[in-house]
Amino acid sequence: MATARLCVLFVSFFVTLAEDMKLKYKPSSKPVRLFTEEELNRYDGSEEGQPIYMAVKGVVFDVTKGKEFYGKDAPYNALVGKDSTRAVAKMSLDPEDLTSDTTGLTEEQLESLDDVFEGTYKKKYPIVGYTASRILNQDGSPNKNFKPEDQLHFQIRDEF
Q: Do the beta carbons of residue 28 and residue 155 sit within 8 Å?
C-alpha cells in the first residue's frame, strides 16, 4: 500500500512538473521573412486588426504592442510601414528623413541609431523579417556581405 502511494506521489509530481514546463515553454516565433517596400507599407497601422511593422537598419520589427505610439493617429505613426533608419538616427519625423539612407549622418547620429536599435527595438519588439534592401543590392543582385546565420532569430530550418 505504501509503495502504491509512493508511486502515485511520484507520478503526480512529474505530471505537475511537466505541466509547469509546458506553461513556461515559449514556442519559437514565426520564421522571419523578406519584405519589399510595398509589402512593408501594408503594415502601417491604418487597418484595425493588422500588425504594425517598422524597419530600422533593414530589420523589420512588429511594433503592434506599442500601438499607442505607432498605431493610426499615434505620435510615431509616420515611422511605420517603412524603413525609418534615418529618422530614428536623427530623432526626426520629417518626411524627408523617413528612409533607410544613412548617407551624411554624423558620428553622434550613428551612435544614437545603434543605441536605439539595440536598447529599444531589439529588446522590446519581435523581429519578423528583413527588408529586401538589407539582403539585395540596388541592382537586385545579392548582397555578398549579408550572412543569414549572423542575423537575429535566424534558424536555417525556418528559412527553407
A: yes
The phi, psi pair for 64, rounded to 5°, reads -55, -40
Q: Which residues pair with 130 in a beta bridge?
A: 34, 59
**Tens digits of residue pLDDT in 71-96:** 999 999 999 999 999 999 999 999 99
Phi, psi of 54 (to 5 degrees): -145, 155
Backbone angles phi, psi at 70, to 5 degrees: -110, -10
Would strands 33-35 and 127-131 be described as parallel, antiparallel, or unpaired?
Answer: parallel
Q: Cβ atoms within 10 A of the Cβ of 144, count?
A: 7
Sign of CA dihedral 44, 85, 83, 101: positive
pLDDT at 156 over 50: no
> Distance between CA atoms of 88 and 71, rounded to whole angstroms?
17
Element (H, E) at 61: strand 59-62
Residues 54, 35 contacting (CB under 8 angstroms): no
**Where do runs of H (alpha helix) occur along the chain?**
2-24, 37-41, 67-70, 85-90, 107-116, 122-124, 132-135, 156-159
Q: Rounded to 10 degrees, what is the CA torsion of 132, 79, 111, 121?
A: -80
